[in-house]
Structures are given as C-alpha cells and as structure tokens.
Fold this sequence. Notes:
- Strand 4 (about 90-95) and strand 5 (about 105-110) form a beta hairpin.
- The chain is α/β, with parallel strands linked by helices.
- The protein is built from seven helices and 15 strands.
- The protein starts with a strand and ends with a helix.
- It has helices spanning about 15-30, 60-75, 150-155, 175-190, 235-245, 250, 255-265; strands spanning about 1-10, 35-40, 75-85, 90-95, 105-110, 120-125, 130-135, 135-140, 160-165, 190-195, 200, 205, 210-215, 220, 230-235.
Amino acid sequence: MVRIALGQVTPVWEDPIATLQKVEPFIAEAAAKGATIICFPEQFATGWDPGSSSNAQPLDGDIFHALSGYAKQYNIAVLGSLRLPGEGKLFNTCVVAGQDGTLLASYRKIHLFSPLKEGANYHHGDNIVTFQLGGMTFGIAICYDLRFSPLFRVYATAGVECILVPSAWPASRMDAWELFIRTRAIENQIFVAGINTVGITPVDWYSGNSIVAGPSGTIISRAREAEGITCADLDPMAIKEARQAMHVEEDRKTGLYHDMARAVKKK
C-alpha cells in the first residue's frame, strides 16, 4: 500500500519564493499523515501561463532546490513543476525530488495546449518517465496530456501502476476532467491521479477537484474546491484483481490496430 497526497494550491502569481513558502505546511501535513509523496499542480510555483517566460529555471535552480530541501526535511517525495529553459523556447517540466532530496524524475510535457498557443513559448517533450516509490512504479503526464490515450497506453505497457497528472484544468471543463481520469484508469487498469490548481489567476478560474481513480475506474479519493491536501491509498493488488476480473490486456489486438491504421493511410 502506498499513500499519496494531492496538494491543491492557488499560486502566488509569478512569485515562486512566496508560493514555495506557502506550500511548506502542505508538505508537513502530508508527511505527518504517512504519505510517501505529495504532488502539486502544473507550474504551481508560478501559476500556469502559456504566454509567460518569466521565472524559468534550470533543474538545479531555486524551485527544485526548495523542493529538494522540503523532501529531505520531511522525508517525503515531492512532485512539482517549472518552466525549464531550452534552446529558444522553454519546456513545461515536472520534477520529483526523492525522499533524500535527489532528482528522482523529470518529465517534459508532450502535448502542448494549442487553444492558448502554448507551443509558441514551449518545446514539447518526447519521452515518458517512470520512477519507483514504495515498491510501485509511477509515471507522469501533464494536464492536456490527459486527452491523448496512446500516451497512457505506452505507460501501461511499460509497467506503470499509477500515473500522476499535475494540471491547471479550468472550472469550465470539469466534466471532462473526471471523465478523462476515470477513462485512462479503467482502459489501462491502473491508478490515475489528477492534481489540479484551485483559485482565480490571470489566465482562468480553477476549481480544484483533484481526484484519484482506481484500476476499475472508480473514484477512490476526491478533493473539494479549496486549498489543502487529500490523501489516497494505492493498493497494487487492486490492479491484479481488476485484470483477473476483466482480461482486457489479453483481448487487446495491438498488432491488428497498427495494420488497420497503415491500411487507412495507404488509401
């Protein structure tokens, strides 16, 4: 059993120092409740803004340094995200500091949010990332990635048992938020945890509702619309039981799907 904590926070806009100070009590509370990892929303330290290049930092910058320090101090892994400098553009990047403060994982958002032209300021990533905690295998996706099922399929094929999805998902599309999280969980028979922003920013209004869906698609943990942490216990046996009850993986026709797709392209 692995306990994860979802930390809903309203960012102090474009002020990472103030936001990082603000979340320390969240981290302390999660550790006191026995969580192995606490996860924060997309670009939580600055607020998500696809048009901003401010406060971009390397992986050894102040944001990760603060997360690393909290991880060591409270003996809990910490997931956050930042704007990582690249050649000409940035990368929307999620990082995990392990319980010893070292960099455990770094994931670059693959699907950039075209309706708000995120690609104008950001490069897309091109690799999945996995890491181990408490005997479970985790993966990372970011917000808009939720709409693209092939990414989650790749993670499941790689043996990932839980995908963590830090997000800035607006209040106007919350029905889709829950639908995607539950669908990605049930179609791959894994855990999916969505960690969402809360509050009003210059970009949009966010209503939190961070949720964890289990391998049968049921919601096992749900946050409200306020700042705070919500915990969920992940039992790897639930994955085994779901797959024994419904043999989706055995019935999948991956090779046939590829053949049909190639045939369509030739027409």
